[in-house]
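Q: What changes when aspartic acid is included in the input?
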Amino acid sequence: MNCLALIIHGGAGTIRPEIAGAARAGVERALSTGWAILEAGGPATDACEEAIIQLEEDPVFDAGVGAHLNRDGKAQLDAILMDGRSLQSGAIGAVERIRNPIHLARLVLEKGEHSFLVGAGAEQFAVETGIGLCDPTELITPYEQERWAARAAELTPGGTVGAVALDAAGNLCAGTSTGGTFFKHPGRVGDSPLVGCGCYADNESAAVSCTGHGESIMKIVMAKAAADLVASGQHAQAAADAAVRLLSRRTTGSGGLIVVDRSGRVGASFSTPHMTWAVKTTI
Ligand code: ASP
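A: The predicted holo structure follows.
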C-alpha cells in the first residue's frame, strides 16, 4: 500500500487563549475522521471533505457554523475542493444558506460542468442537487453576533479550515472552507476558494491549503507557489517555509499553509502568532 498522509488546519491568526484547547481538540477530531477514511482505503477527496465538514460544524472555527460575520452582520461562506488526479476543482463563494459549503463544493467538482459558483446561483445549484438550504441564522453563534455588534476585530476567535490528503491509490486532494475575514464588505471573496491561491492539488506535485490575509495570499498565488516549489524538488516543509517567506517579503499580510507531496512528505508553516494544525502519516 502507498503511504497515507493527512494534515488539517484550523486557521492562522491570533487565537484567543480560552478557545485554544477547543481548537486543538477540533482539528484532532477532524484528523481522526479523515484518517479513518484513508486507512480503510477511501479516497483523499472523501477524507478532506469529511474532515472539513466536521470543522464546519464546530463553532470554534471560521467556517460553516461560527463563521465571522460581514459588515451586514451576515455569514457569507466560501469553499473549494480540488482533486489532484484530474486537476478538477469545485468551489463556491459568498453563500449565505449553506451549512456545509465544502459538501456543495464537492458537488460542483463532481458535476464537472463549472468550477466556481457564487451567491444566489450557487444556492440554486444546491437546491437542484438536493441539498437543503439552511436558515442563515443557524450559522451565527452568539459570540460572533456580539463581536459584530461591538465591531471587535482585535483577536481572531478561530480560523478558516483546511485539509490536504494523500490516499492509498496515490491521489492528492486539498480543501479549504471559510467565513472569510471579519467585517468584510458584502460580496467580498478572498483567497480561500480560488484555485492556486487558498487551495491547490496536483498529483504531480503537492496538495496545499492556505489561511491568512486573503488579499495578500492572492497576490502571490500562494498554494500554487508552494506546489511549484515541491515540483522543483523541494521538500514539502521547505516549500511551506519558502511560501510564507515570499508572503512576508512581497506583501504586508501574514498567513500560513499546510502541504503534502505525492510521497507523503508533509509541511506546515505560518507567519501569524498561531496556526492550529494536526498531522498523521504512515511514513
Ligand atoms: N484566507 C481567508 C480569507 O481571506 C481568511 C483566513 O484564512 O483566516 O478569506
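Observations recorded in class: The chain has eight helices and eleven strands.
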